[in-house]
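Q: I'm writing a short explainer about Response regulatory domain-containing protein for a general audience and would like to include a description of its predicted shape. Could you first generate the structure from this sequence?
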Amino acid sequence: MDNAASVALSVLGASVTRPTVVLAEDHPPVAEQIREVLGGDFDVLAVVGHGEALVKAVRRLRPDAVVTDISMPGMDGMQAARELLTELPGLPVVFITVHDDPTLARAALTIGKGYVLKASAGEDLADAVRCVLDNRYFVSAALGRIEALVGTLH
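A: Of course. Here's the predicted structure. Afterward I'll give you a sentence or two in plain language.
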């Protein structure tokens, strides 16, 4: 969280730094809901609707983490994350998706460290971002034990 994009707030005279996030989601109503979920704990610097815009926003804004839908028109979230990680190794990435497919989750977790089902985003997303910021994996509980998904990645 020592990223230059972190936003400092003054709370009762003390300085508090909130992690920053760029969000990619191609459905505006869903993007707004996710933004609200994240806004309680993080500063959402930008909301974009496709992978190309995600890459541009992250290059410009240098957030602490990225939250991206997997399925988007044009460049999808996984492609965008791969491209970003070549330039910014270690960038924390959380994928959000409707797909409760363990095979897709495994593939996503070779790129990022978080995999959250949209159905559980309200409960899981803030925790997922905190985990990836701490260099830990997070997978929605509906997909089963995290060890079963990430244990084979290393």
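A: For your explainer, you could say: The two ends are 25 Å apart (CA to CA).
Q: Perfect, that's easy to follow.
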